[in-house]
Amino acid sequence: MTLSYVLFLCFQIWSDKAVIQIANEKLSSIEVPNIEICGYGSDIKITRCDFTKKDWSKTINPDCIRQDDGVSYLYQKPVADLSYCYVFMSNKSLLFSDESNDLRQIIVYFKILNLTGAEKASLSVPAVAVQLLDPSFDPLTGKVRDSKMGKSATDNLRLQLNNFAGIQNFSTVVKMTKSVYREIPSGDFKSLLGLIPNYINITTLTAYTQYFPLHNNPNFTDDTDTGFFQLTVGSYLQQVQTEKRVRNLFSALGVAGGGFSAICIIYIVLFGDRKTRPWGIMHYLVKSEVERFGRMDNVPLLFNGDGKESSLTPEERIARMENPKQYEKSVIFLGACDCFCLVTRLHKTSISVRVMTK
User: What is the residue range of 228's domain?
Assistant: First the structure.
């Protein structure tokens, strides 16, 4: 039975499925994400990047080139023959936060170089596709690439599930939120023991967009810019989903110990403990029955103690003596009486010996 219970606990540990614990964390700052900007049917140009700080002071960076050292924030990579993509990367040097030295928002101005080609490639208004990527999330690393949720997050990026558009002659207001999924890697030994696992953090950025038409601004009427999008933080409250194992080795030991303790308690209550409490409930029940059936009136003798015949008929006496339960109790009582008589005789014999000696 014990082996079956141990095998049952081992099967529960092996077949355990993690549950999701959802919590919210307040962040003091959020890193400016990597921004992927792609054109379709035409090459594009990022004409300007404006950084607005918390105190509303603004820094204008033409062509997204930093003014202090001349390093560009943009990296270009051709994707297809007529599609071109740029990636805005701050290398974790820019932060969104409530501090005055950090950023409040980023405004990126873009220009579609060949509007005719963009119009031929699609029936919609010429636009660029924009997607936000968390700097700390790398879908190409080993653990993230092999994890279940890492593959799902990579597929979402490839399918552009969370992208938004920068439309010609429109401004796009983008408010982003951050969420993290902490996955337990398969075969993690710490999680099997019940310790804190080596989590794989999979970060997702969600974009909420609003579109507004542009007025007659000279920068847009003379084809200097096609449109722009404005990126800011929608909430510093980060949702964290953490996988938790329900059954592990330590919990199995606790369950086994609790079951053993419950069995011991039941046994002690019923039958007592030899050292601390030798009498249990069962002993008191048996003791009361022995005392009740062990009275002299209930002993199955042929004659009562006064020498007169018993009022029981011979058939009743034989039936009582043939009752195993009554016979055992009677034997116990008679054995106790024999011991008492033996002690009394020894005591009288010792007195007689003393008298004869004198």
Answer: 20-244
